[in-house]
């Protein structure tokens, strides 16, 4: 989250303890409803992976690259939308792996 807050310039509220407080509260509220909070690892390669077939594109490590075409499946990706889809999929994978 530190890297994300820095790159998105969220400012002090999120980078301080705000995020920790938010997730603690969210976890509590979910458990009240018999639900669980899962965490996607901060080093999960959400921006580098094609959300369609999983091709890893190291070129997307360059933050200035906002859109890219997957060399494997030819899908045109918006960097942030592709990353969001990958994070959603990884979260669902973690949820399904819960005991
Ligand atoms: Zn692809």
From TrEMBL:
Residues 19-87 form the Cas12f1-like TNB domain. Keywords: DNA-binding. The keyword DNA-binding applies. It holds the Pfam family Cas12f1-like_TNB. It comes from the Bacteria. InterPro entries: Cas12f1-like_TNB (IPR010095). It comes from Anaerobutyricum hallii DSM 3353. This is Putative transposase DNA-binding domain protein. One of its GO terms (molecular function) is DNA binding.
